[in-house]
Amino acid sequence: MMNAAIRPGAGVLGLPATDIGAVVSGAVVADAVIMGLPFDAGVTGVPGQRHGPEIFRGLSPSHDWSLDDSGVLGGLIDPLTGGPVLSGCRVFDLGDLGGVPIDPRVERNAYYRALTTLTQQLAKTSAIPLFIGGDHSVSAPIAAGLAAEHGPVHVVCFDAHCDFSTRPMPALADITHGDFLGHLFQAGVVTGCELYGVRTYLPASCGPLPDNLRCAYEYGFAEPSKVPDDYRDHGSSRAHGGEDNCEEGRPTYLSIDLDVIDPTEFPATGHPEAGGYRLRELLAAVQHVCRTRRVVAVDIVEALQDDRENRATSATISALVMRCLRTLLESDQGRVRTQ
Amino acid sequence: MMNAAIRPGAGVLGLPATDIGAVVSGAVVADAVIMGLPFDAGVTGVPGQRHGPEIFRGLSPSHDWSLDDSGVLGGLIDPLTGGPVLSGCRVFDLGDLGGVPIDPRVERNAYYRALTTLTQQLAKTSAIPLFIGGDHSVSAPIAAGLAAEHGPVHVVCFDAHCDFSTRPMPALADITHGDFLGHLFQAGVVTGCELYGVRTYLPASCGPLPDNLRCAYEYGFAEPSKVPDDYRDHGSSRAHGGEDNCEEGRPTYLSIDLDVIDPTEFPATGHPEAGGYRLRELLAAVQHVCRTRRVVAVDIVEALQDDRENRATSATISALVMRCLRTLLESDQGRVRTQ
Amino acid sequence: MMNAAIRPGAGVLGLPATDIGAVVSGAVVADAVIMGLPFDAGVTGVPGQRHGPEIFRGLSPSHDWSLDDSGVLGGLIDPLTGGPVLSGCRVFDLGDLGGVPIDPRVERNAYYRALTTLTQQLAKTSAIPLFIGGDHSVSAPIAAGLAAEHGPVHVVCFDAHCDFSTRPMPALADITHGDFLGHLFQAGVVTGCELYGVRTYLPASCGPLPDNLRCAYEYGFAEPSKVPDDYRDHGSSRAHGGEDNCEEGRPTYLSIDLDVIDPTEFPATGHPEAGGYRLRELLAAVQHVCRTRRVVAVDIVEALQDDRENRATSATISALVMRCLRTLLESDQGRVRTQ
Amino acid sequence: MMNAAIRPGAGVLGLPATDIGAVVSGAVVADAVIMGLPFDAGVTGVPGQRHGPEIFRGLSPSHDWSLDDSGVLGGLIDPLTGGPVLSGCRVFDLGDLGGVPIDPRVERNAYYRALTTLTQQLAKTSAIPLFIGGDHSVSAPIAAGLAAEHGPVHVVCFDAHCDFSTRPMPALADITHGDFLGHLFQAGVVTGCELYGVRTYLPASCGPLPDNLRCAYEYGFAEPSKVPDDYRDHGSSRAHGGEDNCEEGRPTYLSIDLDVIDPTEFPATGHPEAGGYRLRELLAAVQHVCRTRRVVAVDIVEALQDDRENRATSATISALVMRCLRTLLESDQGRVRTQ
Amino acid sequence: MMNAAIRPGAGVLGLPATDIGAVVSGAVVADAVIMGLPFDAGVTGVPGQRHGPEIFRGLSPSHDWSLDDSGVLGGLIDPLTGGPVLSGCRVFDLGDLGGVPIDPRVERNAYYRALTTLTQQLAKTSAIPLFIGGDHSVSAPIAAGLAAEHGPVHVVCFDAHCDFSTRPMPALADITHGDFLGHLFQAGVVTGCELYGVRTYLPASCGPLPDNLRCAYEYGFAEPSKVPDDYRDHGSSRAHGGEDNCEEGRPTYLSIDLDVIDPTEFPATGHPEAGGYRLRELLAAVQHVCRTRRVVAVDIVEALQDDRENRATSATISALVMRCLRTLLESDQGRVRTQ
Amino acid sequence: MMNAAIRPGAGVLGLPATDIGAVVSGAVVADAVIMGLPFDAGVTGVPGQRHGPEIFRGLSPSHDWSLDDSGVLGGLIDPLTGGPVLSGCRVFDLGDLGGVPIDPRVERNAYYRALTTLTQQLAKTSAIPLFIGGDHSVSAPIAAGLAAEHGPVHVVCFDAHCDFSTRPMPALADITHGDFLGHLFQAGVVTGCELYGVRTYLPASCGPLPDNLRCAYEYGFAEPSKVPDDYRDHGSSRAHGGEDNCEEGRPTYLSIDLDVIDPTEFPATGHPEAGGYRLRELLAAVQHVCRTRRVVAVDIVEALQDDRENRATSATISALVMRCLRTLLESDQGRVRTQ
């Protein structure tokens, strides 16, 4: 008999839905969970990222999964392999933290605090959380929640912008979606950050960049052992412990700002920058990160409402979510896990 | 020699700019002032109204006014009359309260309070303020500021929605852009409200509507004396004084939610409703209000950023601003003034 | 206890849903029913009308109706009157005849036959059916079903085109969406037809037009008694009986081809024609028809899928459906009813 | 046998085509002719008006006219009347003066001179020319050509702008598309001008406007006798002769700048102005002009290339051309003709 | 003297046109022919593919070919080589099978049968047919016609979807555009199929996939000898004969579903899938197929009408047609031919 | 104290502005200058290129440069390197030659002559000019001006079209934007031309192409020494002197027609051709040219006004300008310089 806490087919992508309480309490055991963060109070320029989860839910393909009583997935074939998709995995949609219409009377600090708590709770379970934003500032409370459980994390971020500043921002309340990395470094929540896809400049007042903040346009597809020594050294000296003091074993937070994609493929973002990634390039890079790092959480942020482009928005997020889930969960993907 | 506080041609529409302090202190005497309110923290659904003033400023036509030393306008011909435009009038752009990029660390209550204070200061001067939103919730602090000087005001509002609710909202902090009228009635800030262009329903829980809140689709162009007696009675009993206790003499706040216009003419708004006004119809109705009521302030709100439509957005706001200014200020318009 | 055949809130516009069998059998008593017709096999040019019901369902506003146990509606306020909306009325969504993805293996004649049968069954009940197309050719089998119960009907049609031809088309299988009226006249299913909004020409080979087919651009808002005598005569001589041989008493089929609206307000149609109605004009004309004629069925057809315009499409259909329902069902609308 | 100079169905709207030489020589007798003017070298701002004729030709509806041997039209029914369309009339497409791709080596003065000559030649025949622009500056050489044959003409112009200036421009080479009326007044080519739809301002340096240049937003539908006396007086005192010294008898040049239409209905123009006419309003006004004045030539100008809007552009021009032709040529329209 | 059956310049791309009868009878000898298939009755979702040929014809570039009396091409230079384009080749446009407006009274089985017959007739000539769809279901009757002449064919297909199902579909009448490959396998019409560009999942009920149906995202550009042995074995064991039992010699049908291209480059298709090919990648892959396989027919299908995108649609089809023609026909392309 | 001729922050991209006279006279010393050419009188098809500079100026990012008294730049960090951007370089915006609204009374020959003179003056200074068009015909007078100072130049051109013809065009007045290279070859102004990105055909009448005009689709990234000998030979024999008679030393004019980019990334051009470059590919190729050739001038041409795409247009031009400036001016780029 189906676990009463599970609602088959009620989630995004046709996945089963359940409540966060059921996962945190252990009533439902999950390998991964999806959660929407309809929030854009961290935005300085064009807002509307609150609609990201709504668009993803409303227009994503609804797959015909089969489900056993504990919510284990089956039922889909991948024509590329002839084999099954996420077969044997347990993935649940936990709904949104808040919702649209939002209540403008809730202050943003309260939202950040709730998100930190929720992330820490999930980090204690077997489930890898995938958060769908919302604006990029949500990555700060998520990282704080991860660090509360895992210790300081490594961040791999795809982003057209370097969301960094050296201005003092001791509290979460001090961040914006454009400089939140500064807070994470100042608060000691992260051991380092790799940023890929960057193609904009910073005023000199934002710098200098810390050594363990590394920006590149291309994602190199290097195996971890190929990372230059000086970087590895810098990074490991700040790692929080011995057992995972090399990069591939370190708990890693993968953050995908959708503006890393070229505006012609993904226009519905607030600060589009010409010359970005193709979705296919991003999918390959994300797959490589998921395979070679010990990913403990993922976010996909900065999708904007835009009547014309909702369908592309949803398709893009859907492709990224499925690629992350399959690489992280399918047993033959050889990804880095902790023993 | 030009008054040093005046910056010729530096304002929107090619108007002179000055600072609010100069107007409040009397250093610059104005008949009307324009101020942007880049604010959308009162929005529950689609945000982005913070960009309204920016779009209006960026794309409005820049007229070739001439200016005398005290900032009196000249230099434009209206081909329809062959005569001058706003000749002899003193109109200044005061800039924005806040700006884009906004600082997400400023709380919305602080913004509302600043706006109330500023409105009250302006209400003490000879200048009629025209506010460019921003979301519709800014009308609440503006009305509060007007009432602090004028006593409770009458509101004439063009809006596709009836932004009303009976839920208790004693403080400005309790409002949203969709129900702020409830606060104004509860706080005794208004003596009544006429809403034109309404074409949506309300859940029963929002009602019942007070007698002095009147909704209509069509603007009737009735002369004030034609208003039904029962309405007049209701209204006047709550008027704040004797000398202007009939509607035309009562201080009136004109609030224009741009979603009253049909979405085909003005799509760049958060909650478009089919079947709205043409701009031309709205211009005629607004002109009639400005002619027949004692208008003490105007707002034009709920323009949204939208790449495709910025030019239409700016043109629409420009047309409304010019129509208000000319009807309120040109001497042959026969509008209601206090002696 | 709620009638088990009724599914509260499961229908379009937040209305209750039920099955056609429940209505036909009398298990559910309805004043009006809504049914989607996802069909476009009658189209010669641009197809895609099959998506009309899907768009209407997917994007229409979902009102917060209350419902008593037999499905009687309540819960909405109209701010224009302060009074309730469709209060005391029984309106159900019956779902679609067929669906998208459609099965291309079903022949169009089979579809037409099923639609005729279903219409005749509904015509025996108290419910006025509102059909959401689909292409305009569905009006032919609907008219046939109505005539099987009511005798020949009068047609009032809003359309940019005169969908008529004198070529022989004895069977439903002979029609297209552009000439189906020819079949209705040839088959004696209609007593006459008024077409409003026409703004295109016909090749001479399509004519001459019969006397009881009358085309006009403007809808005249004339009271029935104002209809010219010769037309009334023509019409009544072909009416099927004495008791309703004047136009207002004659069973009337109201057919709304959405291309009657101007393409700037409703672009998502296959054969847009410049210079059409505004939605507001159409709503007023439709309301007048519903008030002054004995309307026994309504269709709203020829909406096309179009990514950009789905929201406008749904809003337009929603407005038309609500206007028809309120005028036909609210007790104070004074519409023509039989004894 | 068909007149060898006539090419049936080869013209725009399915009309017959012929060469200008055939019309000027009398080999083909015409009631009206259509000619494209792919020219935009008079534009100061957004160019591309050269594509107007191409768009009109490429996407206009191709009617199934019948033709007798001398090119007399038949074959179309108007469903609104049941009667024929342009039956018995002789209308030919003369092609374009120049073409796209244009030859940038041709100077604009040469183009203006050729157009003046061609217009004068046509003015000697029975044919009323309809010119499809092209930018508005083409109206100046056309007016010059008309005046060379008819004497100074009266101009009725629909335009969002008042294309006038008092700066000296003695030669055609001195004009732009935004001030060409100044040249016509200075050169004595026109007796007066009525401008309808104007909704922009002029710098004071452009004025003052001459008495016989009258601007209005609304087209008044006044019968000629209703024109205010002072205007009539001004006008007639400058008329070139006695037999047509009242306005209705004066040779009148009708010029339609498509930007008079609201940008939501006709966006493809270089200087859109919010708050314009609906196409239907323009059609009615144009019909009234054609009925009540002695129209000797028509132009329709300022359509811009724009991928999205070409279809609307062509449909709008087509509707205007058909309305002009039918009002000017169908015998029951009671229009003003010279005896 | 020009062969009377040839109409110079009357075809798409400025190519000569002729009738299918002339090619089948041998009156005109062709190396390749182009034929439009305006058909979309096999579509379950978004229709409109009937407009594909119309769009291709209406907006493709019209090259200035020279022609000798038997229709041999010349006259174009390729700047990349300095050399001629298709010089010495005989390519004709045969027009469409059916046309728009289509006649909805023609059943789809009749269309499929006519297409099978026509394909078989062409397969007996020297001409390689290029079909322009239309929906993808047309590939089934084409394959049947090819197999009737050549024996079972190999299919190389570019497609975002795997149009396959194991449900029984013995007759052509049983297919849809989304599963037609199932019929081809069941009917023994094909020896195997390679699908490139696939990026969607299938429900388990559609499988398992046969061994000789191979899906990949990337086109490998492998020489035939590089194909893995197991696939080659599987394939050849089902080949119909000895002389072409290796893949490169086997008659191959190249089918290009335009949705293989990324929606940002080719949005005008019914089921766009994010993350597709660039046109340039597709051109290179198609060229490789044409060079290394014995291609006996080509189709390009699933272009949809879409006002905004017609120009891109036509340009894309034009580029694919020219690449196929040049690779298949120009003598220095070293492609696989039968001796 | 800041050089009085320098206006900090007044130029495009936040750069300092100065006047051309100041640069030519030596009052301001520059390493590079930017100049707009709002000109489209060389266009045969879709015009509007006059708006290119306006769009680039209006919507480009305004960087926060610091400036020393002689205009030396600082203040920006590149996150990719952590290092400064254009630090120590002197780059000025010189404004436009002409402006929008343009004066249609200025003949195009006068414009070409002024541009030739201005280019020659700049070529005598230390500044590398970057011209922002405008249509591609401006490259001819620029090349003439360069050659007047440097002797015949080598041209590296990115373009979807081969703008060449062999028809005689002895004078600048004979060119169009589609064949201006013919004039440059005939006039002996260039020693050769490499064209990259070409993907269209030419009529045979345009040929044969000269040996030293080489077209390719792909940019090869070959080091100069890898250029095939026969080309090198051809080229060098026509080089104007000994010291730079190999390609890398030859003065090279880099001309970028924006239509080389794929229309999905850069649609706002007059003659889009499917299958073009990605911006990223173009940036890499342009960078390679700037590094390996002795570039003496750059142009970026053929951007068209298009309301929807202005932002993409500006972003694309901005990226190209910054890439050229950094590669040409930053000291560690190892680019080819003279002596």
Give an account of the 3D structure.
The structure is a homohexamer of 339-residue chains. By secondary structure, chain A is α/β, with parallel strands linked by helices. The first copy, chain A, has a single domain (12-329), classed as Arginase, Chain A (3-Layer(aba) Sandwich). Chain A is built from eight helices and twelve strands. Chain A has helices at 20-25, 52-59, 108-123, 139-150, 180-186, 229-237, 279-292, 310-329, and strands spanning 32-37, 66-67, 73-74, 76-77, 91-96, 128-133, 153-158, 190-196, 202-203, 213-216, 251-257, 294-301. Chain A has an eight-stranded parallel β-sheet, with helices on both faces. In chain A, strands 2-3 form a two-stranded antiparallel sheet. The two termini of chain A are 32 Å apart. The model of chain A is unreliable at 224-245 (pLDDT under 50). Chains in contact: A-B, A-C, A-E, A-F, B-C, B-D, B-F, C-D, C-E, D-E, D-F, E-F. The E-F interface holds E 61, 63-64, 66, 74-80, 82, 84-85, 264-265, 278-280, 283, 311-312, 315-316, 318-319 and F 162, 164, 195, 198-204, 206-209, 215-217, 262-264, 272-275. Strand 9 (202-203) of chain C pairs antiparallel with strand 4 (76-77) of chain D.
Walk me through the topology.
The structure is a homohexamer of 339-residue chains.
Chain A lengths: L19 H6 L6 E6 L14 H8 L6 E2 L5 E2 L1 E2 L13 E6 L11 H16 L4 E6 L5 H12 L2 E6 L21 H7 L3 E7 L5 E2 L9 E4 L12 H9 L13 E7 L21 H14 L1 E8 L8 H20 L10
Helix pairs in contact in A: 2-8, 3-4, 4-5, 7-8
